[in-house]
Amino acid sequence: MPQRGRLITLEGVDGAGKSTHLDSIRERLHARGHRVIVTREPGGTELAEKLRALVLSQPMDALSETLLMFAARADHVQRVIAPAIAAGAWVLCDRFTDATLAYQGAGKGVAQDLIERLAEAVHPGLQPDRTFLFDCSYEVSKQRLGAAGKQLDRFEREDREFFERVRKGYLVQAVKQPQRFTVVDASRELAEIRQFLAVDIDRL
Ligand code: TMP
């Protein structure tokens, strides 16, 4: 039986630049001899990508949003993440349940306890082995999102107060679980961040 793989997640407020670093993390893991699977949430399967398109565009209440995030996650975990980890791959996932705790929980007021119970039902016993949390200020986020010139989704259009609640929600989680989280100051130079990530990855 192959050795169990790992689950590595990337998290952070919108515009923190986590997608920019996904490639360098993948390359570093690959260079260390791991088979790497890159995926994202919401998304990663045919059903979950359909739910993603819906949830990023359709206005809805926070509870519906939470349940749809977990519906997408259930399909994704069963079809992609769990089998890949069982087969020994390292799964690099752009967002996971920490995003639900930050956005729907801290950001929109859905009870943390409910989110934790849903997480226990959807991915029992599965927690990321490492979570890179890309953190930046509202100003940096707005500037990056503006410079990217893309159409903003429902979450990216939210106001400063929402952004600050989400940011704080993430940072509180990182403080509670320092052994799992690595907080990355996303306002630093790209090369500096890459170097910082490489050192952390080599310790995994
Ligand atoms: P992305 O742009 O980083 O791919 O993420 C899509 C958006 O979905 C992002 O604004 C955060 C949001 N999101 C949630 O609100 N809850 C979740 O559980 C996940 C996975 C993402």
Q: Distance N terminus to C terminus?
A: 21 Å
- What's the tally of helices? 8
Sketch the topology as an H/E string, one letter per element: EHEHHEHHEHHEH
Compute the average pLDDT. Answer: 96
Rg, rounded, reads 16 Å
What does this structure look like?
With 204 residues, the protein is α/β, with parallel strands linked by helices. The protein has a single domain (7-201), classed as P-loop containing nucleotide triphosphate hydrolases (Rossmann fold), CATH 3.40.50.300. The chain contains eight helices and five strands. It has helices at 18-31, 46-57, 62-86, 97-107, 112-122, 138-148, 160-176, 190-202, and strands spanning 6-12, 36-40, 90-94, 130-135, 181-185. Strands 2-3-1-4-5 form a five-stranded parallel β-sheet, sandwiched between helices. Helix 3 runs parallel beside helix 5. The radius of gyration is 16 Å and the shape is globular. It starts with 5 loop residues before the first strand and ends with a helix. The model has no long low-confidence stretch (mean pLDDT 96). Bound molecules: thymidine-5'-phosphate. Thymidine-5'-phosphate is lined by residues 14, 40-42, 69, 94-95, 99-100, 103-104, 155-156.
